[in-house]
Amino acid sequence: MATITGVRVEDVRFPTSVTADGSDAMNKDADYSAAYVVLETDAPGPDGAPLGGYGLTFTIGRGNDIVAEAARQQAVTLVGRDVDELAADMGALYRDLTADSQLRWLGPEKGVVHLSLAAVLNAVWDLVARRAGKPLWRLLVDLTPEQLVDVADLRYLSDALTRDEALALLKAQEPGRQERLAHLERTGYPVYTTSAGWLGYSDDKLRRLCQEAVDAGYQHVKLKVGADLAEDVRRLTIAREVLGPDRNLMIDANQVWDVPQAIEWMRELARFDPLWIEEPTSPDDILGHAAVRRAVAPVGVATGEHCHNRVMFKQLFQAEAIDYCQLDTGRLASVNEIVAVLLLAAKFGVPVCPHAGGVGLCEMVQHVSVLDYVAIGGDLTGRVTEYVDHLHEHFTDPVTVADRGAGTAYVLPSLPGYSTQMYEESVERFRFPDGAYWVGDTSAPGTTVRDTAVRDTSQHVPH
Amino acid sequence: MATITGVRVEDVRFPTSVTADGSDAMNKDADYSAAYVVLETDAPGPDGAPLGGYGLTFTIGRGNDIVAEAARQQAVTLVGRDVDELAADMGALYRDLTADSQLRWLGPEKGVVHLSLAAVLNAVWDLVARRAGKPLWRLLVDLTPEQLVDVADLRYLSDALTRDEALALLKAQEPGRQERLAHLERTGYPVYTTSAGWLGYSDDKLRRLCQEAVDAGYQHVKLKVGADLAEDVRRLTIAREVLGPDRNLMIDANQVWDVPQAIEWMRELARFDPLWIEEPTSPDDILGHAAVRRAVAPVGVATGEHCHNRVMFKQLFQAEAIDYCQLDTGRLASVNEIVAVLLLAAKFGVPVCPHAGGVGLCEMVQHVSVLDYVAIGGDLTGRVTEYVDHLHEHFTDPVTVADRGAGTAYVLPSLPGYSTQMYEESVERFRFPDGAYWVGDTSAPGTTVRDTAVRDTSQHVPH
User: Residue A159's pLDDT is what?
Assistant: First the structure.
């Protein structure tokens, strides 16, 4: 027996706006934040401390408290539930949590109540994997095709993918699972980096970071664009110089353009041979993305970090609107909805290159990418998962990237869970608004935070 | 001078689940609620009391506190602003309020932060109309085409509608404005009723309410469907018997079907000759609605009450997915986004039949429908606006419907504002969780609430 005895939800905010980490054409002053859910149980964990589950969704500052409150209201319904019973039917738990029609009205399946649901379900999946003593990716690839399809939320998808089709697809990938897993255990899962390309960085910093990416073995580097065309040309010229003609350069407009403007702007940027243009327009504009894609080919179109649910992804695939599916582990409703999107992507033959960065997203996407390759998509062609090198120091099981001869890659995590537990010291220090950092004590003693994100806090006025 | 001096946001919930008002295949226990925003000023109103602005968005219970908190965070930024300056450039105010990229992340433009923005902007529009001493519809139809297009949020729409096209469309309607207005002042704006058709009602109650609708002069009646096919057939048989072959019968599935299921179910229900099937599937499924529409013609497809923004409506029009546009005044970001959708609908030739019911939605949609006919769409063909007869008793300027010879219709409101002010007694009594009703005092003295929605409160355990 292991019973969920309590729930704690924290509003944790890192002052990343100080260093312009995360700055792009739409988001100029992001304070990377997490609505962080802790599920407490009465069972002992492997280290003697009680077994817990830790999950989060990512936001960029104000409103993180609103998401946290929604998560609290959803999570309290779990108190008293037995962990092993939950683990035995995670599809049923998902349906329970999404069946509250009063909360559903506030979406449905989008915005705050869907972000908060992601945080809650991420915590449950973390708990279930910890209880099983496995990293989440291994728990998932150990499921049979029937178990995996039972986990997936296939509602509203049957015009594109029936349960039988999903099952057939999973069964077809079953024979190669062990071989593909062995490959990933040798090489890791390929990544690209966005650390170089934030808009707020100077040209010198951009050049230096591009060079560091090359030196570190990256074959893909992404830059933000869309604020000013002349500046984009200047920055892409620098990046191309450093990367050379053969490495992949991706660009990301973060939704700033209308459709005709995206097409026009890309006429000017196509000469830098980008692999993809990411978020060229409103994330809701399926038909707009399809129009942009037709106009800018052979440059690819990528989107997904703001794609709010599987019904939107279904249509992006049906409309042939995207070349790369960038699903987000904090925006989709955890593994249940992610498996559905991975199945759709596999059926439509669109590579999944998950969005990451933020807070804890890298920690989660590595599990998803392993699941995709081993059990669902079964292919690495055109796949590369985002990696951003910040804020990992706040996690107890941070991502590791290494180049083992096949390019820079996520090393498969080995500890039990979803890699989503934060150090209590980090939570305490950056809890908003009462953590030591936010009350103005920028040199609080007794923390173990190795704090790259707050290097310049001496100039920061908490807000 | 009139300065906004304070903001008050209330979580008001009416216990409608007691009587099954509002029950449908998706939403079985709705407690109709409002996140209610009050803007206080230092200027005198016409009655001597200080001038205020009153706005709301509608939810169905749990989570209304979350929307209220988001509205509070958005509304407090208005304190200190001058009302006349705001009124002079409502487009700029809209851009200010939507420019918070941190809150934008929680949507963007959808879910809780968009619902709350609607409530805040509805309050500002109410305030501006009160300050001008006009009902909102008159303030809007008195704007020039240039002023009206400056109010509209046209971002992300230029592939479907440019500013110049919007302006040309408004100018083309200018000569007929006075004539159309005079027509509405004589006849009112045509309505249909949903009061008869909630799923939770017995057959006898259904038959009685249909007969009452016929007796009251309604030419359109709407029923909920989708929970059980045999029951739908039985209920539609009753309704058709009472309505006869010539009156219009609409049906509403409230999103319960997958696309293939919607098509199959409608094969059985088509024989009742429904004018439209409403919300046959996920509100996000643009391509799914288009597929259903192709399959069920000549039955029309209607949707919109959960269509979360103008970008989604743009695509519903582009994909020829709907026959009726049911925009919602609590879900779109007030007049600014509504004008954009009315312009799109006019360009694509889709009749706008706004969603109403809930709390205060009828009060708002009458203003929108007048604006549409007089200044934008310019046509009544195929138009009929929803009307539900409950909860109006809580508003200081409730809707009036009457049959003046052209069918049952909203009588044009004449008091200044957006008709969105609630009685303070109602707010006090139904404020959650501390209002007299919710603390268990179901017979609180001293209220003036004429309370159709809480007839059966003696059996109700507050939750």
Answer: 98
